[in-house]
Write a structure and sequence with these properties.
alpha+beta; ten-stranded mixed sheet; 22 helices; globular; receptor; Cadherin EGF LAG seven-pass G-type receptor 3
Length: 1318
């Protein structure tokens, strides 16, 4: 409710709105009955309508906009009301006539063209005109101006609708913007427009989808093959249907309908009627979804005339856009009764409806499915012309991906249709827009109608003015007025032009342009629109004009861009005011930028011109305009550095003039020349608030003065008791204190608070003193009968409230909607705590009195009997302070104090700060709470914020005297994108710490990646397990080669398993560190055993004795011991390098990576050298070809395995350190190849394993084994035949007897070897 319109003969009004409702009341002004003048703008059937009256009759004005205004988008309605001038017989104006004219326009409408030529050109009626004649010449709108509704009124009230559901903004009356927050009364409205929030700013659409803002949500236009609310899901089987096309699935009774059960698809069409899908279940039942006159029709036919039908008539679906249809069958239980219902969900919940069906559907098996039509005897009936994709059905919401159709008929893969604009169907001077199977022609500016007629051919200009085309103007043309005429259409005469500061014709009215905000007092004479003064600009969305302030030396003129304020700079000069250069050592000159080599250039910073200053010197200049030096002698200083140029200026000695008197008061208090009392405290608090309320910019000393005065005030009050508190004498004292504190706690003062922290406790000290003062208020509340306190300021919310002890129910605080905050607008109504009232123990005075009476019986007989006094009821008071900006001003000191938690890389407070304390039973509760305190925070930022940590402020310690954040007594229990919930075991000051790192997120089909990863890595793990069991369990496999292969399989198995399950376990720091250490160890162990394999192959070719049998202690020392030593040294040298907030492994940016990459590189190099030596030996003359082939196969398998494993880990390292989807897929594929390669090379292609399989399956001992056993004896290791028959060739280079194992074994030892891992 606003003050009523006072204009009687002439007014203009403009209002922007957005709604989905097809009816509603936008504006009403007049008395609240039907017998007096009124003016009303309504929405009727989706179109804007004006109804007005001067008391005798009503006139209705209705422009028409194609599609209406109830589409959830912003629309603007403009009203121009005036009295027609009365013209004498001589042609002169003789005042207003009886004709009252009202013109109503919608959006950017060319009113003259619409009113004069709308019927002639067609489809252009965005403006309409109404004329009312009556004996009254003026409009008397007595009564308030109501926006969005009227009270309960009689049935015959002149407006059709009484309310409005939607959003409004930008109300202008006579070109003057009206602040919608300056209402007289408000009933049920709220600030902002959540429904039109910029939902697309976070780029929610995946897979190259295009985002558009809708009503309370966003819409993604997905490319073909993708769908879902955010284009995240892959839509299989996209096909184009021609009207005689069909897709057919034959399920052969393998798909069973159970609850819940889902079926759905996505489609687009321009056809009114057609079948989307038809499913046959059981013997007689069919489920049919089809379009009926553009509406969705759903039919379940169970045979014998039992038909259930539902029609969704809320939306036409033949608009050529993609629509998502989901059906869900579910059971609803009511006692023992079970009912089955089907829910139809259209476009992700935009429209939905339910229908009850009998229980025959449950348990039926789906036989076949038709999509796009009904196939009967080879002919398609009721076929659809359009596209369908993503057909699914099953027991999951996204359904199960269907296999390829059993058969298809006349369908085309994809959804490609011809562009109708290719044939140039639109007239000249228009643009053709492809609307999918149709098109629309949009006329260029200045062309109207179905044929896009040139406006200048119609000539909307008046009074013989000339129409000229002008691209870039509002309507594409301008009217060049003749003498004595002005206005957009030259409709006004200048015979009696209004004086300066007035506008209108023939009746003049005041301009209402605020010169204090930089506007020219003289407005536009034709429409009253205000414009900025010369050499001023108006930022977009601002109601103030700012001076250009162009630097004369660096700019070519004093004018600037009217919206951005950018001055016209000389070549090489940059900055809005043309006062700086690219180089920090360059100075602006009339010829451009000139580089200085021994000094810092003259420059403008913080409102001060700093003179040219030599390197290493300090520049001191007077404080900027509008400020005073500290005690009249201070100055602004700035250091000139040889390396960095100018450093940031120090203006801490400068003070605003408004703080001059407060500075003197502070000086008196600091010198003990002034003593505070209740009266002085009341005055000082009032004066402090009066000064801080008018401040737009603070200097450093302003913040210092305010904080020190607040400190003195609160310290004084904290020493008072009872009625000595100033709050008992002044009802506004608390509000004045909190408002002053809120003003200086603005984020713009962060640098000043950081400077104060060097010599004082800064913002932390102010917070602590406010806590002590509010505690004093709470402890004296019962004694002084103070009411609960509820104060809301821009940066602080204070609530001192009584808690009920009569119940143990948990309650939310602050009580935002209670009378405690009545009339105060909350900036965050979501942040709150949930608290159980503390248990109150009975006072001890009564118990003591009773005990004394029992002991002293003689006294009791001699004294008159009195009943014991009633116990005084205990009072519990909750003190809650919420700071919006304090998190960014407190010292950035953090200590986790818990091994299981990890401090973020770039910690930042991302929530309001909440201080909680409870006064109960004459004391403040300090002990650990039995039931944890629940705190729910609304996050300040949601973009580039991750890994929340609930923390509590520790006010002081020996290490950090100013205080620090700790996570010792708090736990995170819940988190979504906008809110965090914490449980804390003590009262205190709390917040949410988060990581502000800019994190690249994986983009693409992440669900598919997860499925592929778990499937392929699981396959690899199964292959590795099979390899291990085959090698261990098969009889006859007793060689050292088999033992090496077993160890490689085990290390690879645990490496992949730990990587798969633990790489993302970053929430728990200790667990993440353990996982990273285990990964390091098992990866190194795998590399070590690969080295052992190469070494073993080399030794078998170079040593005389047969080393393929015997103990493997040396190999175990290398394979398991060396990795343990390397990992242990790494943990000891850099334990913090294991795990980080992103993943539980080693970062490629950490030096610790060389403890992983170094051994791998060494092993690859050494194995390569050994492989070359073995290959060279094989090329020596005298070797048998059959034996060469066997060794070459072993050599190739070792090389392939080393290559596969090394490449896999390379891409695994890249995958966790980068956000490239291809790395993740390559790592997953290579992981699966690891397991398959091990199984094939160690089991399938290995000759020793093949012989063992023959023994296990056929019972036939291989000849090689018989030879081995016959040769086992004291000199078995020197038996050349044994070595040759083992499948590996030994080339004797010399009679080497050096070995890492003993060469003397008894025959008994050799004959008792077992098939276990050694």
């Amino acid at each position: 409710m606003f003050r009523g319109l006072r204009q009687r003969f002439h007014l203009t009004l403009s209002l922007s709105f957005a709604t989905l409702e097809h009816s509603g009341l936008l504006i009403y002004n007049g008395r609240l009955n039907e017998k007096h003048d009124f003016l009303a703008i309504e929405i009727v059937d989706g179109q804007v309508q004006l109804k007005y009256s001067t008391g005798e009759s009503s006139t209705v004005v209705t422009p028409y906009v194609p599609g209406g205004v109830s589409d959830g988008q912003w629309h603007t309605v403009q009203l121009h009301y005036y009295n027609k001038p009365k013209i004498s017989s001589l042609g002169s104006v003789q005042g207003p006539s009886k004709d009252k004219v009202a013109i109503l326009m919608v959006d950017k409408c060319d009113a003259s063209v619409a009113l004069q030529f709308g019927n002639e050109i067609g489809n252009y009626s965005c403006a309409a005109e109404g004329v009312q004649s009556s004996s009254k010449k003026s409009l008397d709108l007595t009564g308030p101006l109501l926006l969005g509704g009227v009270p309960n009124l009689p049935e015959n009230f002149p407006v059709e609708h009484r309310e409005f559901v939607g959003c409004m903004r930008d109300l202008y009356i006579d070109s003057k913007r009206i602040d919608l927050a300056s209402y007289i009364a408000n009933n049920g409205t709220s600030t902002g427009c959540h429904a039109k929030h910029s939902f697309c700013d976070s780029n929610p659409c995946k897979n190259s989808g295009t985002c558009s803002v809708g009503w309370s949500t966003f819409t993604c236009v997905c490319p073909v093959g993708f769908g879902g609310k955010d284009c995240r899901h892959a839509m299989h089987h996209p096909h184009h249907f021609q009207g005689n096309s069909i897709l057919y699935w034959d399920f052969k009774n393998e798909v069973k309908i159970s609850t819940p059960w889902y079926m759905g698809l996505a489609f687009r069409t321009r056809q009114l009627d057609g079948v989307l899908l038809r499913a046959h279940a059981g013997q007689y039942t069919t489920i049919l979804c089809q379009l009926d006159s553009g509406l969705l029709s759903f039919v379940v036919n169970r045979g014998s005339g039992r038909i259930t039908k539902l029609l969704l008539d809320q939306m036409q679906l033949n608009d050529g856009k993609w629509h998502d249809l989901q059906l869900q069958l579910q059971d609803v239980r009511s006692g023992r009764e079970i009912r089955y219902i089907i829910t139809l969900n259209l476009d992700f919940g935009l429209y939905q409806d339910t229908i009850a069906v009998a229980n025959e559907l449950h348990g039926l098996k789906v036989k076949y499915l038709h999509v796009g039509g009904i196939l009967d005897s080879g002919t398609v009936h009721h076929g659809l012309e359009g596209c369908i994709q993503g057909v699914h059905l099953g027991d999951k919401p996204t359904g199960n991906v269907l296999a390829k159709p059993s058969s298809t008929l006349n369908v085309e893969a994809g959804c490609t249709v011809a562009n109708p604009c290719d044939s140039n169907p639109c007239p000249a001077n228009s643009l053709c827009q492809d609307k999918w199977q149709t098109y629309s022609c949009v006329c260029k500016p200045g062309y109207y109608g179905a044929s896009c007629v040139d406006a200048c051919h119609l000539n909307p200009c008046k009074n013989k003015s000339v129409c000229r085309r002008k691209p870039g103007s509002l309507h594409g043309y301008v009217c060049e007025c003749g003498e004595n005429y002005f206005g957009q259409y030259c409709e006004h005469r200048m015979d009696q032009q209004c004086p300066k500061g007035w506008w209108g014709n023939p009746t003049c009215g005041p301009c209402n342009c605020d010169a204090a905000k930089g506007f020219d007092p003289d407005c536009n004479k034709s429409n009253g629109q205000c414009h900025c003064k010369e050499f001023h600009y108006r930022p977009k969305g601002s109601d103030t004009c700012l001076p250009c302030d162009c630097y004369p030396i660096g700019s070519s003129s004093r004018s600037c861009d009217q919206e951005m304020g950018q001055c016209h700079c000389r070549p090489g000069v940059i900055g809005r005011q043309c006062n700086s250069c690219d180089s920090p050592f360059a100075e602006v000159t009339p010829s451009g930028c000139h580089v200085l080599y021994d000094a810092c250039p003259k420059s403008l910073k913080a409102g001060v011109w700093w003179p040219q200053t030599k390197f290493g010197l300090l520049a001191a200049v007077p404080c900027p305009r509008g400020s005073l030096g500290l005690r009249g002698t201070g100055a602004a200083v700035r250091h000139c550095d040889e390396e960095r140029g100018w450093l940031e200026p120090d203006l801490f000695n400068c003070t605003s003039p408004a703080f001059k008197e407060l500075s003197a008061l502070l000086e008196g208090l600091e010198r003990n020349e002034t003593e505070l009392n209740t009266i002085e405290a009341k005055k000082l608090a009032h004066q402090l608030r009066a000064v801080t309320d008018q401040m737009e910019r603070y200097f450093g000393n302003d913040v210092h003065i305010t904080s020190r005065l607040l400190s003195h005030l609160m310290a004084f009050e904290s020493r008072q008791q009872g009625f000595g508190l100033t709050a008992t004498q002044d009802a506004h004292f608390n509000e004045n204190l909190i408002q002053a504190g809120s003003s200086v706690l603005a984020l713009e003062n962060r640098d000043h608070w950081d400077t104060l922290l060097q010599n004082d406790h800064g913002s932390a000290g102010l917070m602590e003193q406010l806590r002590e003062y509010t505690s004093t208020l709470a402890s004296n509340m019962k004694l002084t009968y103070l009411n609960p306190v509820g104060v809301v300021t821009p940066n602080i919310v204070l609530s001192i409230d009584r808690m009920e002890n009569t119940t143990n129910n948990r309650r939310r605080y602050p009580r935002y909607h209670s009378s405690l905050f009545r009339g105060q607008v909350m900036w965050d109504p979501h942040t709150h705590i949930v608290l159980t009232p503390p248990k109150i123990e009975a006072p001890t005075t009564t118990a003591s009195l009773s005990a004394g009476i029992e002991v002293n019986d003689t006294v009791e007989n001699s004294l008159p009997k009195h009943s014991p006094p009633e116990p005084e009821s205990a009072v519990t008071i909750l003190i809650l302070i919420i700071y919006r900006t304090l998190g960014g001003l407190l010292p950035a000191h953090y200590q986790v104090d818990r091994r299981s938690l990890r401090l973020p890389k770039n910690p930042v407070m991302n929530s309001p700060i909440v201080s909680v304390s409870v006064f109960s039973n004459h004391t403040f509760l300090q002990s650990t709470l039995e039931t944890p305190l629940v705190l729910e925070f609304r996050l300040l930022e949601t973009v580039n914020r991750s890994k929340p940590l609930c923390v509590q402020w520790n006010h002081s310690s020996q290490i950090e005297p100013t205080g620090f954040w700790t996570a010792r007594d708090c736990d995170l229990v819940y988190r979504n994108t906008t809110h965090v919930r914490c449980h804390c075991s003590q009262f205190g000051t709390f917040g949410v710490l988060m990581d502000s790192s800019h994190r690249e997120q994986l983009e693409g089909d992440l669900e598919t990646l997860a499925i592929v990863t778990y499937s392929l890595v699981s396959l690899s793990l199964v292959c590795l397990l099979l390899t291990f069991f085959f090698l261990v369990c098969l009889k006859g496999l007793k060689s050292n080669t088999r033992g090496i292969h077993c160890n490689i399989s085990i290390t690879l198995f645990f490496s992949e398993l730990i990587f798969l399950l633990g790489i993302n376990q970053t929430e728990n720091q200790f667990l993440c560190t353990v996982i990273a250490i285990l990964l390091h160890y098992f990866f190194l162990a795998t590399v070590a055993w690969l080295f052992v394999q190469g070494l073993h192959l080399y030794r078998m070719q170079t040593e005389v004795r047969n080393i393929n049998y015997g103990a493997m202690r040396f190999y175990y020392a290398i394979g398991w011991g060396v990795p343990a030593i390397i990992t242990g040294l790494s943990v000891g040298l850099d334990p913090e390098g294991y795990g980080n907030p992103d993943f539980c492994w080693i970062s490629i940016h950490d030096k610790l990576i060389w403890s992983f990459a170094g051994p791998i590189a060494v092993v690859i190099l050494m194995n390569g050298v050994m492989f070359l030596f073995v290959a060279k030996m094989l090329c020596s003359p005298g070797q048998k070809e059959t034996k060469k082939k066997s060794v070459l196969m072993t050599l190739r398998s070792s090389f392939v395995l080393l290559l596969v494993i090394s490449t896999t880990w390379l891409f695994g390292l890249l995958a966790v350190n980068n956000s490239v989807l291809a790395f993740h897929y390559l790592y997953t594929i290579l992981c699966s190849l690891q397991g398959l390669a091990v199984l094939v090379l160690f089991c399938v292609l290995n000759e020793e394993v093949q012989e063992a399989w023959k023994l296990a399956c056929l019972g036939k001992k291989p000849t090689s084994e018989e030879a081995n056993r016959s040769s086992q004896g004291p000199n078995a290791y020197n038996n050349t035949a044994l070595f040759e028959e083992s499948g590996l060739i030994r080339i004797t280079l010399g009679a080497s007897t050096i070995s890492s194992v003993s060469s003397v074994r008894s025959a008994h030892t050799h004959s008792s070897q077992r098939g276990y891992l050694r």
